[in-house]
Amino acid sequence: MSGSKPDILWSPHHPNRYVICDSELGLYSIGPVGSTETKPGTLSLSEETAATLLAINSDTPYMKCVAWYPKHEPECLLAVGQANGRVVLTSLGQNHNSTCKELVGKEFVPKHARQCNTLAWNPVDSNLLAAGLDKHRADFSVLIWDISSKFAPETSVAAEKIRLSSVDLDSSTVVTKPLYELGQNDACLSLCWLLRDTKLLLAGMHRNLAIFDLRNTSQKTFVNTKAIQGVTVDPHFPDRVASFFEGQVAIWDLRKFEKPVLTLTEQPKPLTKVAWCPTRTGLLATLTRDSNIIRLYDMQHTPTPIGDETEPTIIERSVQPCDSQIGSFAWHPSSQNRMVVVSAANRVMTDFTVFERISLAWSSTASLMWACGRHLYSCVEDEAEGTDGAAEKDIATKMRERAQSRYGHDTVQVWRNHLLAGGISHMKQCSEDAELKLQGNKQFAVYSGIKNIVKTSSGTTESRRCWSGSDRQTDVTRFQSDERCLALRLCGWISRGPDIDVETFLRSLEQEREWERAAAIALFNLDIRRAIQILSKGAVTEKGDLNLNVVAMALSGYTDEKSSLWREMCSSLRLQLKNPYLCVMFAFLTSEPGAYDGVLYESKVAVRDRVAFACMFLSDAQLPRYIDKLTAEMKEAGNLEGILLTGLTKDGVDLMESYVDRTGDVQTASFCMLKGSPGDVLKDPRVQCWIENYRNLLDAWRFWHKRAEFDILRGKLDPSSKPLAQVFVSCNFCGKSISYSCSAMPHQGRGFSQYGVSGSPTKSKVTSCPGCRKPLPRCALCLMNMGTPVSSCSGTGKSDEKMDLTRENKLAQFNNWFTWCHNCRHGGHAGHMLSWFRDHTECPVSACACKCMQLDTTGNLVPADSS
Amino acid sequence: MELHILEHSLKVASIEKEGIEICTHGLIKLAFLASKTRCKFFSLTETPEDYTIIVDEEGFKELPQSNLISVADSTWLALNVVSGGGNASSSQPIGVTKIAKSVIAPLADHNISVFMLSTYQTDFILVRERDLPMVMHTLSSEFTLFRVVNGETVAAHNLGISNGFVKPKLVPRPIIHPLSSPSNMFCVTSLDPDTLPSVATLLMDVMFYSVGSKEVGATSEDSSHIRFFSFSLIEGYISLVMDEQTAQRFPNNVLFTSASGELWKMVRIGGQPLGFDECGIVAQISEPLATADIPAYYISTFKFDHALVPEENIQSVIRALRTESTAQ
């Protein structure tokens, strides 16, 4: 603020004018680059704006501080505080017959000369100008001048000898009698008028901050502190004030003035300016000496559930408006986040807009929001319902939809729904696994996957079979064993039961119009006729592919002559067939016995078909090698079809891991692993992690009911996951748990001891501790002892209750629960409490002011799946 | 009212006139290069007899060891009175008179020796560090006591000594030392620290080469003309006391002056060096002035005390003080 260091002041009313003061005052006008003609005086401030010097005033030497008159008229009236304590009114760029003519040149002289540190116009009573001076042993340091006062009848001054003051007092324009004198025998370093009451003046005195009240000048409120420089009121919060000392900024709340509400992190160099942004709440800019950055503090008022004691969060960041060292800066009074910066040397100015911090948040439901300045943007996933849209949906959306449609809970149908929706065709296998499990006999084998099944294969028989419907012996060897048969069943080719006929499966495929696949499977079962029949059937049906007839024709020409033209043509032309099943059909027919790579490694063919094929035609030596190779491939790709091979074993977890890594679908992983895994797989930390994440996901979606259902399912399938009782209600008198089950079998920890949870009416009637017979606490609302039934469901017998667990009935039971506030420890029946807090925030106990419900952050949320 | 006990630990020293040369380096550093030292409290007062230095421990390191420098044995603490409430009364008597009754007289009653230093900005009352419990006890009834610790002002607690003090006898305090009043007039002033470099050479001339300039003055002035100059730089504030002739050597607008341009005359107390143990000297002078509502500055030096009173009051002051001494 001293003469050499520049400062900037924006005009309070002209949005495009500002004054720079260093050794003189310079008035500038700012405008777009284009509009101002490139006059020689134009200075570029940024890419878009330029400034023009309008006027210079160098009438006032020894400037220490400047303040701009706050009212519209007279505009451009400035008060300048000088090194000797005089305050001079001056003006810039005004023609001389303007309204402020009589004010310009007026001087306000303190009794004892000392430096004027600061000036502040009263924003309302704009004829009041407060000046803060250095201390004098017998004088006041805060002088409030009335600029409209008539030139004092200076009898008192005139009477005294004017001797040493060689600066003659031109008594016509000199005022020596201030309106108010405050702060005796102290120094004043900074001043500001308080916005909440314009009779209040906040002053940074030598070692304290003081609030002077003009209505009663003998009183002051003060607080001792070092942070007394640059006091400034937040324009958005009239009670919030910033001040600084060396490198530290203190933020004060005038309502609680004893100590700063917070101090900002100390900066290594002394601060020179601190200013609140007038266009953005809670944004404070600070500048230190010899620095080319401006540090910004964003003080947010995050609503916190408990009280006002928590400190507001502060986001700190720095901006660098220009390369040179900054002398001073000033926020634009109305343009958002805009400031002009002047360099410490050479008066280089920069127009700069602080880019608003972008805050971004994902919702748990795949929509995205971000805020920048006064704009709020939201990005919602396109709800376009389309067949191809489904495939492109985000996995989270997909999981959410599936969760809503009770994915994974009940039946094969649900699994199939998913199968269609997600295009993943593995679940069916799992469900069939599950069906097989119900048969009970080969439980272990089934879940260990085909890979393990075929390893244990023994007693394989080889047979050469005829083409069905003909006597021709094939040169194809087919292998059979119990394990292979089981594997075929797992692949879905043959159904359960004694017969090993694929006809049922073929028919179901025909129904699903999978003609090529059905034909291929028929062919692999050495039934060319059936295959041809299927193909021609496919050709004649509605929308059928007529080419199938051609294929059937080609098929019918099959010959086992090794060097026939048919073979030659088929083995080369089959590669041009688009349908993989048609392709593998010819591969099968044209390949050498025992060398079926064309079939086995056709990746477009479903894994289960390839595995089934392998089980039929690969020898005991070839089969495990092929299966191992395929398993590794599946694991690598995270292809869920591979579950068929790995089963729900460690291998399966590995495969699932790479699937989750690829898709993020913890939902499928959780259900799949839960659905009948042996214990050691469930204990795998990865599996636990998926399950926990899925539960968290459901919680985040507020699908609390779904989560509860999932937990129940999980508890059924994995009893070890049942949570232990977490809450026990114990009697105040004897200290024992009041739960009946607990008292009956002590130290079991099994009983869920929230009293009243159990459905039995005999228990819910108990109103005293089962241990010591003392009465239980009373409900704060109905004043009945706890345990007393509050609804009419009391009469129903135990068996009845189990029969009809109607919704109403359940609710009534919940209403009986104990609830209490963890803070004030008052409570009562859950139902009563719920209805009380629907209309109240305070505790129902009359003398208690606890805001129980507000302490519960989730208390006001509602589940998103209100089922 | 608030009484602030400042954190400076002060030494009071006297440099013989012929010893000033060896100290010049340190003194210039303390006076003009404040950023080069950690000294916060420095005062240099030239009297015809010697130079009196009041300086804090940091600044004391800048001074050389010499037998031309004598140091008062104890460490001193500075007290400063701050008006707590913003009292709007404008006819406040200036300086020592204001605190004469509230601080100086009670301390004198309790036999506490004080050392005064008035500056343009304020009055410092220096007391010995060892007397502090007594001082606090004496003044706690009248003042809210604060101690400055690391720049923060904190409430000072009475050290718990409330018994065992002799009840002071309230006796009239006659003036026992001879008084004299030099003929020249003084101004008490200050200047903007930013302009200090521009007048540094002039100040050095005034401070250290007074012998030469005095010859000029001695020829024109009568024999009762006294050589007296005081410079202090305390917590960033500069205060100057110099005679009218010296003040005229400064450029216009550099020195701060009061609107009325008042001048002061000096009352010099003591015929022979006063020492540091006698108490009540300041009280003897300031009480009658306070009673007569005459503003005053009071500057103690190593050997003598000096009071400055407005020139127009000098006759009545002399009269009042004479009455006091003859009333004996």
Automatic annotation (TrEMBL), chain A:
<dbReference type="Pfam" id="PF21720">
    <property type="entry name" value="MIOS_WD40"/>
</dbReference>
<dbReference type="InterPro" id="IPR036322">
    <property type="entry name" value="WD40_repeat_dom_sf"/>
</dbReference>
<dbReference type="Pfam" id="PF17034">
    <property type="entry name" value="zinc_ribbon_16"/>
</dbReference>
<dbReference type="InterPro" id="IPR001680">
    <property type="entry name" value="WD40_rpt"/>
</dbReference>
<keyword id="KW-0472">Membrane</keyword>
<comment type="similarity">
    <text>Belongs to the WD repeat mio family.</text>
</comment>
<keyword id="KW-0677">Repeat</keyword>
<dbReference type="GO" id="GO:0060841">
    <property type="term" value="P:venous blood vessel development"/>
</dbReference>
<keyword id="KW-0853">WD repeat</keyword>
<dbReference type="GO" id="GO:0060047">
    <property type="term" value="P:heart contraction"/>
</dbReference>
<feature type="domain" description="MIOS-like alpha-solenoid">
    <location>
        <begin position="399"/>
        <end position="617"/>
    </location>
</feature>
<dbReference type="InterPro" id="IPR037593">
    <property type="entry name" value="MIOS/Sea4"/>
</dbReference>
<dbReference type="GO" id="GO:0008270">
    <property type="term" value="F:zinc ion binding"/>
</dbReference>
<dbReference type="GO" id="GO:0034198">
    <property type="term" value="P:cellular response to amino acid starvation"/>
</dbReference>
<keyword id="KW-0862">Zinc</keyword>
<keyword id="KW-0863">Zinc-finger</keyword>
<dbReference type="InterPro" id="IPR049092">
    <property type="entry name" value="MIOS_a-sol"/>
</dbReference>
<dbReference type="InterPro" id="IPR015943">
    <property type="entry name" value="WD40/YVTN_repeat-like_dom_sf"/>
</dbReference>
<keyword id="KW-0479">Metal-binding</keyword>
<dbReference type="InterPro" id="IPR031488">
    <property type="entry name" value="Zn_ribbon_mio"/>
</dbReference>
<keyword id="KW-0458">Lysosome</keyword>
<protein>
    <submittedName>
        <fullName>Missing oocyte, meiosis regulator, homolog (Drosophila)</fullName>
    </submittedName>
</protein>
UniProtKB/TrEMBL annotation, chain B:
<dbReference type="GO" id="GO:0042802">
    <property type="term" value="F:identical protein binding"/>
</dbReference>
<keyword id="KW-0963">Cytoplasm</keyword>
<dbReference type="GO" id="GO:0005829">
    <property type="term" value="C:cytosol"/>
</dbReference>
<dbReference type="InterPro" id="IPR027795">
    <property type="entry name" value="CASTOR_ACT_dom"/>
</dbReference>
<dbReference type="Pfam" id="PF21389">
    <property type="entry name" value="CASTOR1_ACT-like"/>
</dbReference>
<feature type="domain" description="Cytosolic arginine sensor for mTORC1 subunit 1/2 ACT-like">
    <location>
        <begin position="177"/>
        <end position="259"/>
    </location>
</feature>
<dbReference type="InterPro" id="IPR045865">
    <property type="entry name" value="ACT-like_dom_sf"/>
</dbReference>
<dbReference type="InterPro" id="IPR051719">
    <property type="entry name" value="CASTOR_mTORC1"/>
</dbReference>
<dbReference type="InterPro" id="IPR049479">
    <property type="entry name" value="CASTOR1_ACT-like"/>
</dbReference>
<feature type="domain" description="CASTOR ACT">
    <location>
        <begin position="72"/>
        <end position="140"/>
    </location>
</feature>
<comment type="similarity">
    <text>Belongs to the GATS family.</text>
</comment>
<feature type="domain" description="CASTOR1 N-terminal">
    <location>
        <begin position="9"/>
        <end position="68"/>
    </location>
</feature>
<dbReference type="InterPro" id="IPR026249">
    <property type="entry name" value="CASTOR_fam"/>
</dbReference>
<dbReference type="Pfam" id="PF18700">
    <property type="entry name" value="Castor1_N"/>
</dbReference>
<protein>
    <submittedName>
        <fullName>Cytosolic arginine sensor for mTORC1 subunit 2</fullName>
    </submittedName>
</protein>
<feature type="domain" description="CASTOR ACT">
    <location>
        <begin position="261"/>
        <end position="322"/>
    </location>
</feature>
<dbReference type="InterPro" id="IPR040778">
    <property type="entry name" value="CASTOR1_N"/>
</dbReference>
<dbReference type="Pfam" id="PF13840">
    <property type="entry name" value="ACT_7"/>
</dbReference>
<dbReference type="GO" id="GO:1904262">
    <property type="term" value="P:negative regulation of TORC1 signaling"/>
</dbReference>
